[in-house]
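Recall that a protein's primary structure is simply its ordered list of amino acids. Everything else, from secondary elements to tertiary packing, is in principle encoded there. The following example makes that idea concrete.
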Amino acid sequence: MRRTNPERAVATDGQPVPVRLARDLASRIITWQKRYGRHNLPWQKTRDPYRIWISEIMLQQTQVEIVKTYYESFLNRFPTVSHLARARRKTVLRHFAGLGYYARARNLHETARRIVQSGKGFPTDYATLVKLPGIGPSTAGAILSLSCNEPHPILDGNVRRLLARLHLGRDPERNARETARLWALARELLPTRNAAVYTQGVMDLGALLCHPRNPACNRCPLTKDCRYRSTPDVRRAGPGTARTRSGSRRMRLLLLRRSGRLLLERRPPDGIWGDLSCLPEIPPDESPCHWYRRLAAPAGGRVVRHPPWRHPLTHLELSIEVYEMDAKDDAEQLLVQPTHWVTGRQLRGEPLPRPIQRFLATRGLTGLPPGQG
C-alpha cells in the first residue's frame, strides 16, 4: 500500500499527480537504474552512513570525477567518524584542499565532533541528521536512502532540474515557491520499496541524461510523460536559471621569505579559500612596495613580480599575481595573527589552495611535483 503524504504534488494544471502514474514513473526509474545507472562509484560499495555522508558532502557543487580523486584518500586518513572528530581542523582542511567550498570541510569536522560527543554513533534518523551542520533535507534524505534503504525525497541540483522538466516543462526557477513545489513532487514519486535504487536512479538520470544543455531525451525512460519534450524551446528556460561567473577578481599575493622560512596567512572563514593557509594577500588599495616597507621590513632586495595566471572558480575567475622578495632576519612584527612563518617541512602540513600549492612547487618550495593537484 502506498504511503499517504501530508503534502501532495501538483502538476502545472494544479491537479495531483495520479497515484498510478507516480508508481509507474518510480518503477521505470528503478528499472533503468538497475540496467543503465552507475554501479561502480567508490561510495556505492558501502552502506556505511558515515562514508555515504562524506561522499554526499564532497559531491555538493563538485563533479564526480573530481570527488573520486579525493574520496578514498580522505577516508584512508579519517576512516571513522571518531577519527574525523579527533583530527585538527587544519588537518581536515588540508585533506579537503582542492575541492573548494571549504565551509563543507569545517561542517564535516564540527558534525563529527557533535556525533562523537553524543555517544550514540552515527545517527540514522532523519530528525537528528537534518539538524547537523552542513546536512540539509536533501543530504539527510540521500544518506538514509542509500545507507538504510528508507524512502526519503532528495532535491539536489540534478534532481531539481529533472523534476522541473518532467512536470513543469521547463528548467527550474530559483525561488521558495518553486522549491516547495518540487519538494512536493519529489515526495509524491517516492516508492515504498527499493528506495536506495530509486534515489540513485533519479541522481543518475539527472547527471547522465538530463543535462543542463542537450539532454539525451531519446534514452530517458520518462520521455513519454515528460512535458519538456513537448514544450517549445523558447519557453524551456526558467527565469534566473543560468549559472554564470559573476566576473573576475584580481588577487595580489606576497611571497616573503626570511631565514629559510615562508610567510603564510590564514584566510578569513568566509570568502575565497576560507580558513585555508595562503600567501598573504596585498590589500587592493596598497602598492606592493609600500606594503612591503610598512609590514615586511624588506632587506632591500629587488621585488620579483611573477607572471599572473588565471584560476576559474564556480562563480568567479581569479587573476593571481605573486610578488616575491626576502625580509630582514629581525622582521618579527609579522608574527601577528593571522600570519605565521613556516619551514619547508612545515609547509607540507599546511592546508594550501591547489593553485598556490602548484605555484610554490614550481618555485621548489614544497615536496610536491609541479603538476600535482
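The chain has two domains: 19-235, 248-362. Confidence is low (pLDDT under 50) at residues 1-14, 367-373.
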